[in-house]
Write a structure and sequence with these properties.
Elements: H1 2-29, H2 45-52, E1 60-62, H3 68-73, H4 78-85, E2 109-111, H5 119-133, E3 139-144, H6 151-162, E4 167-173, E5 176-177, E6 180-181, E7 202-206, H7 210-225, E8 231-236, H8 254-261, H9 265-275, H10 281-304, H11 318-322
Parallel strand pairs: 1-2, 1-3, 3-4, 4-8, 7-8
Antiparallel strand pairs: 5-6
Helix pairs in contact: 1-2, 1-9, 1-10, 2-7, 4-10, 5-6
Bound molecules: thiamine diphosphate and magnesium ion (MG).
């Protein structure tokens, strides 16, 4: 029974991420999103859902410019996320952060981050504080394949290993850093292999298989919680859309895109649940309908929310404070 509930919850989280981001894409096309085009993780939902499903309330999360899925799976509310993306006062950061900088300390979400590789040293700090204070909290840090060529990746993995910190590194290898194919920038055959340089386990997993991701994450998170130190998980996946919603994806072939769409993490998981009779069509449709309603309510909330008062524009700006 518990297993069935877990499966339904994993599916629901993936559907929430898919609907939320497909809706953002439509909003982008309708030009109703201010600022840069959003970075969508459609196709990568199993990584977010699988990893976050085995985190505990007290655990910390760091994510990237492509973080909507991680935030939703970690418990962020759709309405406040959408309000943030639209720059509204009711958003998680009072409309100041936008899509790439959503944080909520109450949920232990220490932030998405627009700077590639910037979450890793913050994760080291969070994990070092947990260890020093004797807190039962594991820090989970998501980053992309391109971030593994940034200096902070190497510095952070080394320091986490030296201090045996409770941190789990999740590299979402979606094959590309912007338009650069990761295979052309990797000196070894996998990102997981790099963990050996820092004497921690490196695990490569099918990132479109939500149960495989969950199993790998559960092992690494449990071990970190029990003092076993850090681990690196490389989840192989693919983003269906471009780097940002405006990217025309001219650097990859239609055949490659089609082959990954066939590995849709949601359809794959649904098929398994249908085959094992854990789920039937009406229940699947009910999940989708409930998510649709959640999204509609979030759209209304965000649209009806006010923009921040212009008089508060200098709030939280260090220069303004000093005067
Ligand atoms: C330090 C830094 N360098 C470059 C950029 C520009 N940039 C933004 S996203 C990105 C690619 C990131 O690729 P990856 O880490 O694989 O994540 P993905 O976008 O695939 O999720 C780059 C180069 C940046 N934001 N920060
Ligand atoms: Mg990438």
């Amino acid at each position: 029974m518990q297993e069935k509930l877990d499966y339904i919850s994993l599916l629901t989280q993936m559907v929430r991420i898919r609907y939320f981001e497909e809706n953002l894409y439509q909003m982008y096309l309708a030009r109703t999103i201010p600022g840069m085009s959003p970075h969508l993780s459609v196709g990568q939902e199993a990584v977010a859902a699988g990893v976050c499903s085995v985190m505990k309330r007290q655990d910390y999360l760091l994510t990237t410019h492509r973080g909507h899925g991680h935030l939703l799976a970690r418990g962020a509310a759709m309405d406040r996320m959408l309000a943030e993306i639209l720059g509204k006062e009711t958003g998680y950061c009072r409309g100041r952060g936008g899509s790439m900088h959503i944080a909520d300390v109450k949920l232990n979400i220490l932030g998405a981050n627009g700077i590639v590789g910037a979450g890793l040293p913050i994760a080291v700090g969070a994990a070092l504080s947990s260890k020093t204070l004797g807190k039962d909290a594991v820090t989970v840090c998501f980053f992309g394949d391109a971030a593994n060529n940034i200096g902070t990746f190497h510095e952070s993995l080394n320091m986490a290993s030296v201090f045996k910190l409770p941190v789990v590194w999740i590299c979402e290898n979606n094959q590309y850093g912007l338009s650069t194919d990761i295979r052309s920038t990797l000196s070894c055959s996998s990102i997981a292999e790099r963990a050996a340089s820092y004497c921690m386990p490196g695990i490569q997993v099918d990132g479109n298989d939500v149960l495989a991701v969950r199993e790998a994450a559960a092992g690494a998170i449990d071990s970190a919680r029990q003092g076993g130190g850090p681990a690196l998980i490389e989840a192989l996946t693919y983003r269906w859309y471009g780097h940002g919603a405006s990217d025309n994806r001219s650097y990859r072939t239609k055949e490659e895109e089609a082959s990954w769409r066939e590995k849709c993490p949601i359809e794959r998981f649904k098929k398994k649940l249908f085959d094992e009779k854990v789920l039937a069509e009406p229940q699947s449709r009910a999940i989708e309908e409930a998510v649709r309603q959640e999204l509609d309510a979030a759209m209304t909330f965000a649209a009806e929310s006010a923009y921040p008062d212009p008089a508060t524009v200098l709030d939280n700006i260090f220069e303004a404070r000093r005067k």
